[in-house]
Write a structure and sequence with these properties.
With about 280 residues, the chain is an alpha+beta fold. The chain folds into two domains: about 170 residues, no CATH class; about 100 residues, Barwin-like endoglucanases, CATH 2.40.40.10. About 20% of the residues lie in helices and about 25% in strands. The strands form two sheets. The protein has a six-stranded mixed barrel. A hairpin with a 4-residue loop joins strand 1 and strand 2. The longest helix is centred in the N-terminal third of the chain and has 12 residues. The N and C termini lie far apart (about 75 Å). InterPro entries: LysM, LysM_dom_sf. It comes from Neolewinella maritima.
């Protein structure tokens, strides 16, 4: 009877997966594909969880040991809503990974893999990303591995994750990766604006798909070219800083548009609408 129940449990867990992670009862199942990637900006190991029917964002946050605010920091667009099948990026702390488990516990663990980034080495993966003292475990889990033949996109097995979730006290501090990338401009703003007269404006922000997609840049009507503008988005509750690189074309934008933001700012604020409300400050 015990063997029958164990076999039935395996059949249920290993049934063909839908386009979701877990099911209506469990956030992870042994049949799920868990492939992590490293985010250089935050130093976090990230995983894309796809919400199954009846799974909630709050439930997913708790399962992965995160707060709802931390999930929003990693997924700013989700503040406007989500549905079944929505991708939710979550952080997996290295300490949550197990190197092995007993044979009778197979139904309670999911294999975890890692996708190599361009230029990444086995040494960097083990010491810096996974925080392991050596590469012994990776070599054990990947017996055919040739460290000299690693390539971008290659997937390696790095351990196992329990199906009862990630303990909150094992999680790393999760900060918004865009805010972290914006730190240098924030520091420059604080230095340049100290003791000076600052102009404020409330109005619309529009965005353009042109320009450098990796820089925080804006078009502004009056702020000095090369100076910085502080932009607060009440919806996402984020404040970011961007450099003025040009003027707003009067014939192209509504007079109520106070700033035109670059694609990177659009991603950072999680904007979907063509225009959105902002509060700005500039020198």
């Amino acid at each position: 009877m015990t063997q029958y129940f164990f076999t039935l449990l395996l059949i249920l867990f290993l049934a063909p997966a839908a386009s979701a992670t877990g099911d209506s009862l469990y956030f992870l199942l042994p049949r799920d594909t868990v492939v992590l990637r490293h985010d250089p900006a935050s130093g976090l190991l990230l995983f894309d969880h796809y919400l199954a029917p009846r799974q909630t964002l709050y439930g997913a946050a708790r399962f992965y040991g995160l707060t709802l605010d931390e999930v929003y920091r990693l997924n700013p667009t989700l503040r406007s809503g989500y549905t079944a099948g929505t991708r939710v990026t979550v952080a997996i702390p290295p300490v949550a990974l197990r190197s092995s488990f007993t044979p009778d516990s197979v139904a309670w663990f999911v294999p975890v893999r890692y996708r190599m980034a361009p230029g990444e080495t086995l040494y960097g993966l083990t010491r810096r990303t996974l925080r392991q003292p050596n590469d012994q475990l990776i070599r054990q889990l990947n017996p055919e591995l040739d460290p000299q033949q690693l390539s971008p996109g290659q997937v390696l097995k790095i351990g196992y994750l329990r199906l009862d979730g990630v303990p909150r006290d094992s999680q790393l501090r999760v900060e918004d990766p865009f805010i972290m990338r914006n730190y240098s401009l924030r520091a420059e703003w604080e230095t340049s604006a100290t003791g000076k007269s600052v102009h404020t404006a409330n109005g619309k922000a529009a965005w353009t798909s042109s320009g450098d997609k990796n820089k925080f840049m804006v078009l502004h009507r009056t702020a000095p070219l090369g100076s910085l503008v502080e932009i607060e988005d009440p919806r996402s509750r984020k404040t970011l800083y961007a450099r003025v690189v040009g003027r707003i074309p009067e014939q192209a934008y509504d007079p109520r548009v106070v700033v035109v933001v670059s694609p990177l700012l659009v991603r950072a604020f999680g904007v979907r609408d063509k225009e959105f409300y902002v509060r700005t400050r500039h020198l």
